[in-house]
């Protein structure tokens, strides 16, 4: 007998680990779809004229080969003690937080908490974050994070512009702000016609500005009381912004006590690794009267259907998806996972612990300054917290070299100074090494003396809520983190079938390297020779993304998809200016475009002209042609999404691009649906000039409960000279859009890992299976639910839209269906977007046939419950649809409903043994907005809210 070996390759990451359906399952799904093969399905779905002919070319690595390669790449980085400061500091991530939050898929695979009933855990953690920020800044309202400190400062400027009663067009910027903050503010101001005045706060002309921003402590260390400057701004009805440091605020007077209207900054030093620049959660806090003008997400307290306290996202009508071209910001991705980490850091240490860390940092800085002065060095400023500046004259290069010899990085300031910022990781040995770099032996003894005036000492309390005073034994901390994660439904429990959000597998091997110190410990502004591993990874990822997209160059700077849109439009605008087209300011955007598109265009100084959709959901070509002609030589760009937001490969995409080019415009192809293109269609080869890529969607970076994200942009060669620059780099003239040259650099490693382990062939197969999975759902549900848009051959792309509007005739809403899916153990699809009253479903390639079938079973069972309402067997008000989701309390309480407990809690598709129980009933959104509470209320208030 001849032995036949198995052909199963256990190390084939793409087909055995990432892609869900097996070959046998795919065959069954193709039969249900009615396609002869996967190739045939692609030909029926994607127009032949745009399909790429050349396959993606690189081979795949196995998981163990990839991890070995990453060890080599990590070794190319040089980990030193960076005392550069400038808004970035060494920090100790408590192991309990690293293991139970950062490395825990229950936290990093969660989606943005738009469905509050299944997000109570992360909402509580984010409410803790808001409370922490509000307390430390001394302002009553905070949001749930922004992208980075520099963009938060730019957001504060535009918030001040729309809130101030002053009619001035100027905005004052303290010259002591971090250089990257000043640069990003200038970038944001230019398209909006805001005049930026950078100068000495003591010489500010408050009558000439609608607002001003002050750095506290300053980038060179100054601790200055800005009460007088803030009063001067208020006298002219202007808004005062303070960019500040949360750790310093445990010791020094808070911005609220100075009269500040807005405070911004970064929470990075609260336990979040440096990661060569990110991701880190920025914060924003403001006075109560400004809260409705604040960008980003705000977690609030409301009640559920039983009158019990429940958390939710508040004031959603402020969001750019709803306000579109009237939006004041395009903030989409936040930094929820990093905000959660920072909030747990505050819970872990409590107010006394944070104060102890701050004192240790401050007193070490005092000792350092004393020793340097004793040796004759010129040290400034007189009042400081953790940063000092030393005048070294012509010896600057020698001092910097001596520091590097000691394994230290100082900050190079001008040609004759160095900056030194101490942090939580600074110990006695580091102080000795710093002084040796200056030729000084020994260190001054510790004395508890302040390096700033006593008048600047903080006197108010902070972090008084009981959550910051819990027993901090690790057993209790571990259980608190577990309790919160158990309240949530994330990708580690079930499929999250969200249209346009691509909630695919975030493989463990892809995630592992980001916590290695060789990647996590690098300051974003270290000398380039210390970051060669990052340079290699980013360069190779850029090359692969260029091959995938058909573009010629990439900018890795934008740290969210919306930032990518904004950066892409700024690149187009700069190109037009350089080529005599400064008057080009019209952007054509179809009604079906992503919600952030119009907001991004408005931020880039463009005038949005909306193009109609045809009845089949495509761009209305006649309307597009007419509006392009009307714009004429003012046409700057069009923004389209491909495949369309309606989930269809439009046949006319090349024609749309050609019309735009014929009128001198540039084509922006939104990359949100790139998961339907990789390996099959190159946007840069079908007429696109620029696209952003949502690496947190198509390229496997996890959503983290609402961020982190990355949105790099690919451009044609003609646009490459106009990509965003950065003050820490040379060669690119345009201003930056983010605080660091490579945005949230550490998570680029995840997308690189995904590309390396999938290989070109695996990435292409993933796209094909994503399209198969979506068509399988559409085929199985068609008839039960109308499928709203399909291509000419009856196929959808990677997502499909279920039309639930007909059910409104009998009182069943899209909300009812979404909440009922929770009882089945599923996160709802995207609700009411891009079409109100519909559900947009995107299964991704990672979901197995069994999970997809479970989802289909749940939706078919819900359709039967709707049919019972249609047939008059039960009213919508009395049905399980209206009472969903059902909690354990429902199960054990008195039962007087017209359906059984069994039907309520264990509908078809739900697991019985591993049943997910939502912690709250349906949340009352209206109550939450009318009674806005967005910091942790006292426990007594919870009881009052339930009455």
UniProtKB/TrEMBL annotation:
GO cellular component, one term: cytosol
Positions of modified residues (N6-(pyridoxal phosphate)lysine): 697
Gene Ontology process terms (BP): glycine decarboxylation via glycine cleavage system
Ranges for domain Glycine cleavage system P-protein N-terminal: 16-438, 469-725
Enzyme Commission designation: 1.4.4.2
Key words of the record: Oxidoreductase, Pyridoxal phosphate
Catalytic activity: N(6)-[(R)-lipoyl]-L-lysyl-[glycine-cleavage complex H protein] + glycine + H(+) = N(6)-[(R)-S(8)-aminomethyldihydrolipoyl]-L-lysyl-[glycine-cleavage complex H protein] + CO2
Domain of life of the organism encoding this protein: Bacteria
Keyword Oxidoreductase set for record: yes
GO terms of molecular function: glycine binding; glycine dehydrogenase (decarboxylating) activity; pyridoxal phosphate binding
Cofactors: pyridoxal 5'-phosphate
Glycine dehydrogenase C-terminal domain: residues covered: 766-886
Biological function: The glycine cleavage system catalyzes the degradation of glycine. The P protein binds the alpha-amino group of glycine through its pyridoxal phosphate cofactor; CO(2) is released and the remaining methylamine moiety is then transferred to the lipoamide cofactor of the H protein.
Family, per entry: Belongs to the GcvP family.
HAMAP family tied to this protein: GcvP
PANTHER family: GLYCINE DEHYDROGENASE (DECARBOXYLATING), MITOCHONDRIAL, GLYCINE DEHYDROGENASE, DECARBOXYLATING
Quaternary structure and partners: The glycine cleavage system is composed of four proteins: P, T, L and H.
Record-given protein name: Glycine dehydrogenase (decarboxylating)
């Amino acid at each position: 007998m001849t032995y036949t070996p198995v052909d199963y390759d256990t190390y084939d990451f793409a087909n055995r680990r990432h892609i869900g359906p097996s070959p046998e399952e795919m065959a069954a799904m193709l039969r249900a779809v009615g396609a002869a093969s996967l190739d045939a399905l692609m030909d029926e779905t994607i127009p032949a004229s745009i399909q790429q002919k050349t396959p993606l070319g690189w081979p795949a690595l196995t998981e163990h080969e990839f991890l070995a390669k990453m060890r080599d790449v990590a070794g190319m980085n040089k980990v030193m003690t960076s005392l550069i400061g400038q808004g970035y500091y060494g920090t100790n991530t408590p192991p309990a937080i690293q293991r139970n939050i950062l490395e825990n898929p229950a936290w990093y695979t969660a989606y943005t908490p738009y469905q509050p009933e299944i997000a109570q855990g992360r909402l509580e953690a984010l409410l803790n974050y808001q409370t922490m920020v509000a307390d430390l800044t001394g302002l009553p309202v905070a949001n749930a994070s922004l992208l980075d400190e520099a963009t938060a400062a730019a957001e504060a400027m535009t918030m001040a512009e729309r809130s101030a009663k002053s009619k001035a067009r100027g905005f004052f910027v303290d010259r002591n702000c971090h250089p990257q903050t000043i640069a990003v503010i200038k970038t944001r101001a230019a398209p909006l016609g805001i005049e930026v005045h950078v100068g000495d706060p003591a010489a500010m002309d408050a009558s000439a500005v609608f607002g001003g921003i002050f750095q506290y402590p300053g980038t060179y260390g100054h601790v200055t009381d800005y009460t007088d400057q803030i009063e001067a701004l208020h006298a002219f009805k202007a808004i005062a912004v303070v960019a500040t440091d949360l750790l310093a605020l445990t010791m020094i007077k808070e911005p609220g006590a100075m009269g500040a209207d807005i405070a911004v900054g970064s929470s990075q030093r609260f336990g979040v690794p440096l990661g060569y620049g990110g991701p880190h959660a920025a914060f924003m806090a403001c006075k109560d009267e400004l809260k409705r003008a604040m960008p980003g997400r705000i977690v609030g307290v409301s009640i559920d259907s039983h009158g019990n306290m429940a958390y939710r996202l508040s004031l959603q009508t402020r969001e750019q998806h709803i306000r579109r071209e009237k939006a004041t910001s395009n903030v989409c991705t936040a930094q929820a996972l990093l905000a959660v980490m920072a909030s747990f850091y505050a819970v872990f240490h409590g107010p006394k612990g944070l104060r102890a860390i701050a004192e240790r940092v401050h007193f070490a800085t005092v000792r350092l300054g004393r020793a340097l002065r004793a040796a004759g060095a010129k040290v400034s400023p007189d009042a400081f917290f953790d940063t000092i500046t030393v005048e070294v004259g012509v010896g600057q290069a020698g001092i910097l070299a001596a520091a590097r010899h000691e394994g230290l990085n100082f900050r190079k300031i001008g040609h004759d100074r160095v900056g030194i910022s101490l942090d939580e990781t600074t110990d006695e040995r580091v102080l000795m090494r710093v002084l040796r770099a200056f030729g000084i032996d020994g260190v001054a003894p510790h004395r508890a003396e302040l390096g700033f005036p006593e008048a600047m000492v903080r006197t108010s309390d902070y972090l008084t809520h009981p959550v910051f005073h819990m027993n901090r034994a690790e057993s209790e901390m571990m259980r608190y983190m577990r309790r919160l994660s158990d309240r949530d439904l994330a990708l580690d429990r079930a499929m999250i079938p969200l249209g346009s959000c691509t909630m695919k597998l975030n493989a463990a091997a892809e995630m592992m390297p980001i916590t290695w110190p060789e990647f996590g410990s690098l300051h974003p502004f270290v000398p380039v020779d210390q970051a060669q591993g990052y340079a290699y990874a980013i360069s190779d990822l850029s090359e692969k993304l260029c091959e995938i997209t058909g573009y010629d160059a990439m900018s890795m700077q934008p740290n969210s998809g919306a930032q990518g849109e904004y950066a892409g439009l700024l690149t187009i605008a700069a190109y037009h200016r350089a080529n005599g087209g400064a008057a080009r300011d019209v952007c054509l955007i179809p009604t079906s475009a992503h919600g952030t598109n119009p907001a991004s265009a408005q931020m880039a100084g463009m005038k949005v002209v909306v193009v109609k959709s045809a009845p089949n959901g495509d761009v209305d070509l006649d309307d597009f042609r007419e509006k392009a002609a009307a714009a004429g030589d003012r046409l700057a760009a069009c923004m389209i999404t491909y495949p369309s937001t309606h989930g269809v490969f439009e046949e006319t995409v090349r024609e749309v691009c050609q019309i735009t080019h014929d009128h001198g415009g540039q084509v922006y192809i939104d990359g949100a649906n790139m998961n339907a293109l990789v390996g099959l269609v190159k946007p840069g080869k079908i007429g696109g000039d620029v696209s952003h890529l949502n690496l947190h969607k198509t390229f496997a970076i996890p959503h983290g409960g609402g961020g982190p994200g990355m949105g790099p942009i690919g451009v044609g060669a003609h646009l490459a000279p106009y990509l965003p620059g950065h003050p820490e780099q040379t060669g690119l003239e345009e201003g930056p859009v983010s605080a660091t040259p490579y945005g949230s650099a550490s998570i680029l490693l995840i997308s690189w890992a995904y590309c390396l382990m999938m290989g070109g062939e695996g990435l292409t197969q993933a796209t094909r299976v994503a399209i198969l999975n979506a068509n399988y759902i559409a085929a199985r549900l068609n008839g039960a639910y109308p499928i709203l848009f399909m291509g000419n051959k009856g196929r959808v792309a990677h997502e499909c839209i279920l039309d639930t509007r007909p059910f409104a005739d009998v009182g069943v809403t899209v909300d009812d269906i979404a909440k009922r899916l929770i009882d089945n153990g599923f996160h709802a699809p995207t609700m009411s977007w891009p079409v109100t009253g519909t559900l947009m479903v995107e299964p991704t390639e990672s979901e197995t046939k069994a999970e997809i079938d479970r989802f289909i079973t749940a939706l078919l069972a819900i359709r039967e419950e709707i049919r019972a309402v249609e047939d008059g067997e039960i009213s919508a008000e009395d049905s399980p649809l209206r009472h969903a989701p059902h909690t354990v309390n429902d199960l054990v309480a008195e039962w007087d409903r017209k359906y059984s407990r069994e039907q309520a809690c264990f509908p078809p598709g739900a697991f019985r043994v591993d049943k997910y129980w939502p912690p709250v009933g349906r949340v009352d959104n209206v109550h939450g907005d009318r009674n806005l509470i967005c910091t942790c209320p006292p426990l007594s208030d919870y009881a009052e809210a339930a009455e």
